[in-house]
Amino acid sequence: MAVDSHFERLEQEVGRLVEILTTLRQENRELKARVEGLEGENAQLKADNTRLKQVEEQFQEATQSREIIRGRIESLLAKLDAVQV
Length: 85
Description:
The protein has 85 residues and is mainly α. The chain is built from one helix and no strands. The model has no long low-confidence stretch (mean pLDDT 95).
């Protein structure tokens, strides 16, 4: 009788371990899918960030160009004012 009870307990423990293993495998698949999704999102964010930096550089260049043009126009206006006086 003692051997049968030991085998029953062993069978129960093996069954429990199989359930745990099945659960862990499913969780692992879900986590891998989540990681893949996050890696894709991360790649998109990096691309967006690169594009944003390019746009910021273009904006800064446009702002500098605008300031140069403003200075030239102010200089021209000052010269016109001097001629009119």
